[in-house]
Design a protein that fits this description.
Layout: H1 3-29, H2 36-39, E1 45-47, E2 50-57, E3 60-79, E4 84-89, E5 92-104, E6 109-114, E7 121-124, E8 129-150, E9 155-158
Antiparallel strand pairs: 1-3, 2-3, 3-8, 3-9, 4-7, 4-8, 5-6, 5-8
Length: about 160
Amino acid sequence: MNNKNKALISWSIVLLIIIVGGIFVYNNNFAGITSNSYLTSKEENRTFLEHVNQQYTENGASFDFSGFTGKWSLIEFESSKDNKIVLEDNTKIEKGQFYIVVLDSDYKNIAMHESKEGENLEFTTPKDGKYLVRIVGKNASGKFDIKISSENDISITHKDFWE
């Protein structure tokens, strides 16, 4: 094998490593669970190792879970424009990544935060219409617990686990 062939093979291997490495970095940083394209897609997919003690209240929801990965739009509410909404987040995450996202009827991201103990999510509705409260997780375990309050009346609908 001459030097030209060795150089060509070496550069091909380097290029292949760069391409594979770039795909890995992109998938783990840009197309992950916090990417806008993932958060705002209409597709719902979720898996749980355990999902128990689910309770719905007039203005909230709670349940214990483990091994949650995916997306679930579990609450829908209808609101008027310029309504100040507060999601009182009493969720306690023991493991993994867990986010709460609010989407409008066009699946546009209105508000989002990583669920940490004692942090509320506050936002103002940009238009009249329906909004979704979506949870997004990766290997997450803990207790989900939120309550929704607003300056003006809102109509809340809970979406069952099997919907």
